[in-house]
Amino acid sequence: MRSAPTSRGTLDNAVPARVSPGLDLLPWLRGVVSLAFVLLLPMLIIGTSVRAVFSDRAFMLQGFRDNQVGISTGLDDPQLQRIADAFIAYFQAPPGQLQMQVTAFGQSRPLFNEREVAHMQDVQALVQFFFRMQIVAAAVVLVRIALTFGIDRSGVPIGREMLISVGLMLVAIAVVGAFAVANFDAFWTLFHQIAFRNGDWQFDPDRDYLIMLFPEPFWYSGTLRFVSLIAAQTLTVAIIGLALLFISPRVLSAPPPPA
Q1: What band does 35 get if pLDDT is binned at 50, 70 and 90?
Q2: Residue 243: partners with Cβ closer than 8 Å, 6 or more residues away
Q3: Quick check: helix, strand or coil at residue 108?
Q4: Which of 23, 28, 29, 25 is nearest to 140 (CA)?
């Protein structure tokens, strides 16, 4: 015959039943954060690269010099410096229009026409989208790091996820980079067709100052710089991921030094 269960046994069985639903949520939460981490880590890299390129005053001024923009536009160096400052500030500013009065070939005129102003509003929106995604992705990365210390107690899972994310980035870099190097004109056209569907991105290089300031060679150099920044960050993430995956387990499992 079995003895009847005691009240203590009943309580012992009831406690896990109350606690287990909360515990079951932890693996689910970790899985969601890990998936977001894998998908958004590339966005952190891309957003950081976009911010670096579009905030680099020296790169912009060097592009003006390399492409002899002062000769083609009739703008002197102080005006070109003011234009570079205005562009950098514009990408950090609330949505609005970019316009200024300049003196070109001895005549005062607005820098941009209406189509160029409208296009720059589209560019500002696109650039600031990547700025916001950089912040969101950085927040997800910080949460994932917190879970590494709070739940995983090991660098192996996050190291594995970093390498998966790097794999996604390498595929993207290979495809985009090969397309851009093989036929930059077609790549640049396709990019604009996808990003700016209203068709206001086509300008006359003999009349429109936006394309005179930033001709195709400038954007070719900018694209190479952008891809180089992405590649450098991706390599850094890969090295950290490999270290966490293969080195950290040995360090954590090593016996403590003798007293």
Answers
A1: very high
A2: 155, 159
A3: strand
A4: 29
**Whole-angstrom distance, CA of residue 258 vs CA of residue 238:** 34
Question: Residue 103 belongs to what H/E stretch?
Answer: strand 101-104
pLDDT digits (tens, 9 = 90+) for 220-247: 899 889 989 998 999 999 999 999 988 8
Query: Are the CB atoms for 120 and 210 separated by under 8 Å?
Result: yes
Where does residue 69 rank: exposed (0-12), middle (13-18), buried (19+ CB within 10 A)? buried
* DSSP result, 6-67: PHHHHHHHHHHHHHHHHHHHHHHHHHHHHHHHHHHHHHHHHHHHHHHHHT-HHHHHHHHHHT
Per DSSP, what are the bridge partners of residue 101?
A: 110
3-state secondary structure of 109: strand
Tell me if residue 100 falls in helix, strand or coil: coil
Contact 208, 116 (CB under 8 A): yes
pTM reported for the whole predicted model: 0.81
Q: CA-to-CA distance for 149 and 96, rounded, in angstroms?
A: 43
Separation of alpha carbons 44 and 37, rounded Å: 10
Give dist(CA 155, CA 164) in Å, integer. 14
The percent helix, strand, coil of the chain (3-state, each to 5) is: 75, 5, 20
Q: Would residue 255 be called left, alpha or beta, if left means φ above 0 and alpha means ψ between -120 and 50 degrees?
A: beta
- Band of residue 19 on the pLDDT scale cut at 50, 70, 90: very low
pLDDT digits (tens, 9 = 90+) for 241-251: 999 988 866 55
